[in-house]
Amino acid sequence: MSGDAGSGHVAAPGGAAARPELEEAARRADSRRGLLIALPAWFYLTLFFVIPLGIVGVYSFATRSSTGRTVLSDWNFDSYRRLWDSLVVEIAVRTLLLALATTLICLVLAYPLAYFMATRRPAVRNLLLILVMIPFWSNFLVRTYAWKVLLGSDGPLSQLSQALGGEPIRLLFTNTAVIIGLVYGFLPFMVLPLYTALERMDWSLVEAARDLYADGWTAFRKVTWPLSIPGVVAGSILVFIPTLGAYVTPAILGGAKTTLAGDYIVSQFLAARNQPFGSALSMGMMLIMLAATIVYFRWFRPSGRDL
Amino acid sequence: MTAAVALQGVSKAFGEVYAVRDLDLAIRDGEFFSLLGPSGCGKTTTLRMIAGFEFPTQGSLQIHGVELALQPPNERPVNTVFQSYALFPHMTVEENVGFGLRMKKVGGTEIAERVKKALDMVQLSHRATASPKQLSGGQQQRVALARALVNEPEVLLLDEPLGALDLKLRQAMQTELKDLQTRVGITFIYVTHDQGEALTMSDRIGVMHEGRLLQVGTPQEIYERPTSRFVAGFIGEINLLFATVVDHASVRLAGGRLVAAATGVAAGSEVTVALRPERLELYGLGEVVPATLNAVRGRVTRRVYFGDVFFYDVDTTDGVIEVKEENRPGVDLHEIGEEAVVAWDPVATTVVER
Amino acid sequence: MSVVTGVRPKSPAERLLAGNAWLVFAFFYAPIVVLVVFSFNANENVGIWTEPSLRWYREVFRDEAVMGALRNSLIVAAISTTVATILGTMAALALERFRFRGQRVYDGLLYLPIIIPEVTMAVMLLLFFAQGFQWLDSAIGWSPTFGIGTISLSHIAFNISFVTVVVRARLGQLDPRLEEAAADLYATRWQAFRRVTLPLILPGVAGGALLALTLSLDDVVITNFVAGPGSTTLPVYVFGLVRRGVTPLINAVSVIMLAASMVLVAVSFGFQRGSHGRVPNSTTEDG
Known about the structure:
Shape of chain B: elongated
Structural class of chain B: alpha+beta
Structural class of chain C: mainly alpha
Largest sheet of chain B: 6 strands, mixed
Radius of gyration of chain C: 24 Å
CATH class of chain C: Mainly Alpha
Helix content of chain B: 10-25%
CATH topology of the largest domain in chain B: Rossmann fold
Oligomer: heterotrimer
Number of strands of chain B: 20
CATH superfamily of the largest domain in chain B: P-loop containing nucleotide triphosphate hydrolases
Strand order of the largest sheet of chain B: 6-7-8-3-9-10
Largest interface: A-C, 86 and 89 residues
Order of helices and strands of chain C: HHHHHHHHHHH
CATH architecture of chain C: Orthogonal Bundle
Number of domains of chain C: 1
CATH architecture of the largest domain in chain B: 3-Layer(aba) Sandwich
């Protein structure tokens, strides 16, 4: 045995061979540490999220006594059966349509804006981004309230239209007002993903299309639009799903004629005192939202890349 | 003498895939050892196992005789220079360099002294209070070096440290690194995919491919006496021709030509003959080829001018052979289409597996 | 991508785009501007402008209900932000730096509060506390009431997830080689965390904390459900007022709340400017 030229082979004595079990032990110790660090949040969320969720589930099968208290026996499906009542269906459909309308309007308004922003110089782009973010970060309640001021029949818009010889505006407490309020609140959620998608796009592809004789509109249709679809999908989810559960905006800008799902659920707990029914409604809404999220993710983002 | 680093039967599997298989390697004290190979060959994984960022699935790893295969990296007497330098961005150069000493609870004044010496060694004392992002790539790399060396490790590991630098800078740093190692005397283990780097800097090279160590030797041994087809082909330019072994001193090339070669393999085995282009000479048809040389006839099909050399492609019945000839008076030029003879000293014939 | 500006004449499509952009920005800011302007309106009737005045702002500070609600808001925000930031940061670390069984479930669990509708969460917590108080009462004869405690606990419940998302993003940007380098230089797991990881994720932690603070200060629906008499927060109080009508007092309160959010945004931007330890791309090359 020589220790010199060749492959440097060394004699065997000494040196315990490593066993996979020891590597396992090291990994297990590490995993225990990780679990320990994860524990507080896990415990907290189990107590204050999972259990409450369970309670809602349980309550949805309970009965409402004549005095409005919840009786935790006599388990039944009554509350769920009521979900098919015409009133509930009407509210559900109205909410869905409203959410769809809001999403579409947001898309129509946001896309050209995002396109514009993405095609400016970097310095301008950042400035515009900040300008979009500022309303986004400011208080939601206040922004919705601002529209109440604007749309009131004595409000500035009304005064403007009267000054121009027209009628005072009577938009408050209508569906239109709610849509305006929702679009206003959620527009940034549509702009930002769209902007990100367009900004990250490889614009030399558009140039290549132009080079191959496509005119501006065709280049957009065949190159830009398809490539921006992930952004469209992301923005749509970010608007559609929260809008389904909107409560504050319809409460401020809407009226009794325009009850939406959120308000209906709240009234079961505060006014009508029908907790089982309210719970069933909540579970229903949650399931619809979960289903919508899954559908979106399966259909449009099978690759599972992050937004 | 105990090897600085000794790996025995080391394998590393990630799930089903083996990144490193049955590695046996002994690295000598004070040597500049390079691990060379293409991306994915396992050289970086091997380095990381020595550093402690990965544990071997099997095998033993000793540093100066101490078994360390499963020790965490902070308990090993080795330090690493990372490819991306990994300087702590929220600390100054001094703080970076002194980090390891602080972790080992060395006294304050001693830290200051040793940091100063380390920075002097890499000529960056004037930037001691700068933050890493204010430094150029070359400077950051030197800080990374100082940060590792200040701890006086038994072995220094370098993971393609010059990869991010441009050519001129890289060449300058290669010289600096080699000088540094000679001065400091610590064992350097250097990972690279650049064969030029490995050849110029190393005392010995270990060539790896697909997780296995194929050959270990001095740069000369690796270049002139490759023991496998892959090593022959990986370093420098080479001609690889199919052949069959006739006896212990000759092989038959694909076209039928018999040439002299030292074979160690049984007659009838299929082998590859490896020939360095610069060891071949091109003779015109009218010239006399010395009888001691191996000779193959062919036609020149290409000539490429490279400033200091000419490359010729010669089409022969045994395959296309590339010949490299110096561009100076005294060496004849050959034209395309010319009939010529490729000749070489049998000693320059290397036989490797098919 | 580079776009030539001002060198060639604008096509009609470009004019339309720019026009649309202006319109949308006007849409964004008009209500806010109107609100701010009219908050300085001396007239009681909101729609009709008479003269500028700070009258309503003075009223705000004299109004006990508003001040009380503000105090509650701040207390709840302070508690929930602190607890949520600590728990959320720990959760982020557990997810990004360790491997343990049930990690995927943990990951999903942390996302639920973000995707669940606010109304459902409000309902959940209301029932939970109500039921919980009943059980406590029958078990040990004492039951707490709805108030600052329940509000804080509820805010923490949704804030943890948001903090986790932000801190995780920051951890993801961190070059993993840095922690390896620390270990290579003899740091124990804890030392590496304290000296390398923590300082470098601090901007992320601060960002998460600010987000939690903002969400807590803004929350209406959930707080509405779990607040008790006498423990209302500012947004809930304003919400109540707003439903009844538009008054100049609300205008002034709103503008103050707006200004506060903008300050928070500016501060959070300031934090994000100082970002160390991003994964390196190219470095300057000269000696």
